[in-house]
Amino acid sequence: MSETVSDLLEAAAAGDPSAVDRLYPLVYEDLRRRASRQRQRHIAGATLNTTALVHESYLKLAKSPPRAKDRAHFLAIAARAMRQVLVTYAERQTAQKRGGGTPDARLDDVPPLAALSDGQAEDLVALHDALDRLEAAVGERPARVVECRFFAGLSIEETADALGVSEPTVKRDWRAARAWLFARLGTDVLSS
Amino acid sequence: MPDSRDTTTDRWERVSRLFMEATALAPAARASFLDQCPPDLREEIAAMLAADDGAEDFFDGLGSALAPEISALASDGRLGAWQVAEPIGRGGMGTVYRAVRADGAYEQQAALKVLDSVRPDVVARFERERQILARLDHPAVARLLDGGQTPEGRPFLVMELVDGEPITDYATRCALSVDERIDLFVQVCEVVQAAHRQLVVHRDLKPSNVFVVETSDGPRVKLLDFGIARILEDDADGLLTLTEQRVLTPEYAAPEQIRGEAPTTATDVYALGVLLYELLAGARPFDMPRRLAHEAARVILEEEPERPSTAVTRAGVETLAAPRDEVRQRLEGDLDAVCLKALRKEPERRYATAEAFARDLDRHLRGLTVEARPDTARYRASRFVRRHRRAMAGATLAMATLLAGLSTALWQASEARAERDRAERLSEYTLGLFATQDPFSTEALPDSVTFAEVVRLAAGRAEADLSGRDRLRVLSALGAAVSAVGREGSLDICRRAHEIALREYGAESAEAVQTAGDLAWIIHATDPATSDSLFSAALATADRLRLGPEETASLRSDYGYVLNGPERQEEAEALFRRAIADFRAAGPDERHNLGTTLQHWAVALAGLGRHDEAKAAADESMAVVEEVHGRSSAAYASVLGNMARVVSATGDTQAAVRYNREALSTLDALGLGTGDFALTLLNNLAVNSDDPAEQIQLLHRVRVVRAGAPSTMQNLGVAHMDAGSLDSAAVWLQRARAAYLDSPQAETFSASLPLVTLADVRLRQGRASDAERHAAAATRALAERVGPEHWVTLYAGGLLGAAEAERGAVESGQVRLRRAIEAVEAQGVRHTTKVERLRELAEQLDAQS
Fold first, then answer.
1. Known catalytic residue: B10?
2. CB of B260 closer than 8 Å to CB of B238
């Protein structure tokens, strides 16, 4: 019998550190499933804060309202899963453009991110790589901050909660990491 | 490894802190700051600083592009009660998805349109619009099922899912013949006409909104997005939306839409014309692929479309009903004329209604000559425009009054938002009535057409087009509009509206009450008896029906105004009091009515001798009117004029003169110094003047315009008497008396006034028996009309006593005179000049005896 999100949240609350890690694939699967069901359900143009959506979505997933601390963890996990799903799609989009094959057979039924231009999809993949480099170069925390802020649309306060650090630290990491990443994205991005 | 990790983490702490410190500095100071940074960090920090601005833009840009994806992934695909499935179309306003009921309430597929806009006013407007569109329950109109807001604030609309295809695609796919195309198009006209009868204008008719569904009864049309364009319109910034629309579907936009005018039924007729053109010719009237917006606008406003029979050369052959030459021959003549008539630049030269459009096509199919093709169309059109240019301009000007009246009438009827919206819609419809006066119509306008006549014709149209309450409302509004420019015509319309109300809703209905009130108001000056019985019956009915204040407050206020003379001042006062309480309770929307009613209440209170209350009411009305209309307004002049009446009743004639003068100069500044209202003010000013010569001069100014007005002659009589020219006074008073008897006011308090004054004149002339005769007649009539205790009755009685005594019955005459003096004095200070006159007479008698 497979574990449910609720089971894992309870286990995490009971002090099982591995439960949090085991949540990740579940969340990822869930996102991917939704994405394929909703083919192209995008709305073009500028959008507002999506935090509420992320909250709502994962609270639903958990069935019972998790405690504040669990929810914070959960948001961080959601942010990482979101990054993974989006980047996978963006890779697929750029691969299609180059006429290459599909990198992930499971994504056959998933259309490209129609809201993104091809240039933006490339930027997203480049950002993803740069984020890995940032993590390798300076440690995990700034990369997690970028995930929460950028891929899950969390506020400074929510990011601080999710990662268990202070708000000034989140502010500093966010701005400095952004500059670090952009400096390394280099001429590819600037010319696009 | 732990060491290395600590080092990298530590390095990031140092780099990020120094970086943050540097960003806080002015750019010029950063170079020296970098010089002081540790050399191993310097290059990295410099690179980050250089990237800082670009980074923000980059993350913002990519982030907002990603946000919809994030929403979509996180939101589970549900919007309200709807599970959103795949997209089925993309239009100018947003994306359309297939959706199903997600709450399992019932099995229903729908088209869900998510709008690009995030304006909250759109959502609010949608809510109002939905109530109106809900009434548009027509089998050939795709229903609006639901609507709301996505979590990120975009409005969405849920509409009946129509399993069909655009009419042009259908015609092409099925290779329909010209006749079959016309048959389908006539169906479209019928649906549009049905909607117009419900006062809904589509505003965005085009093939993608006109679907054909195959049914067992053959192809049926189904119209999408009825009235949706209206939801998306930005009232505050209509031009912006218009520009967007222009860019999106210029081919179907009517010239008036390009000009930013409110769309009317005639706008839909234009779009129908484009649709028919495209169905028949396989091309649109104007060939404008990718033309610039301003160029497209110029084409629509200025260029004449080529004939459909010529445009077939531009058509893709597969879109045509038959080989090109065959189609061209078929279109030449009638069908060319029909299409071009619908596409006229001037709304009034198009078909007056969608129905008329369909009728002409029907005539064509039956081989009859079409309306659209009179032999000298151009000549007749130019003649019409020439003949009616002035009238139409007048109509446009008067339209402001009309629409104001219409909105006001409906706002008074209810403060509900939906009602206001309805008022707007009715205004639009009414505008349409004027815009579509058809030059080729059989009911051709006479050469000397006046605004009143245009309104009458419009009323005829409204009566034929509309039904139920809408018909009554438009008729009432039109009646009110004519009454603003003259009572003629308005009476007919109001009478007609009342008849319809009685027939369709019965005497015991809110509609009958409302229309009776309108009618009673119109006739109150000419037929006071009928007006009175209409008003009192309407109020009695309103009470039996327990109608709310929104339906009765104005009725009471109007009735009070009509009754507001000495005869029935107490009733008037009670009516005003009640109306005022209702207007107060109704809040800000009724402030203008509150201001008006308060001033008349003040006059009524003054008439009843309740001077303090009168002054307080007048003060409040002044404040309210100033707040609502400002000081430079006719309404403020009116409140000044009534203030003058109030203070005049307390005997403060100097203040009355001041208020009257201010009122007159307010009107002068507005260019209304010679109007009817100004004349009333001049008259009142004269009455309050203590200089008889000035009185006479002012009153003659009034008389130049109000030649036969009995009140002017009465006042001239008084002025001449005060000036000592007794013969002239007698002449004016006799004329006044005759004029009163010849007017609807024959049986009123006022009609006795010339007799009272004449009695005084005769006393002064030493003609005691004439004086006694007039005074006796006046006293009898006044006692009957305003009661024996009214000060004018008492005054007339005093004059009667003086006349008796002069004639010889000294003792009884003196008793009567003294009693009158005591009784008038007991009522307060307000009639000092009259009391003085009676005392003077008493002193003269004492001296004689």
1. no
2. yes
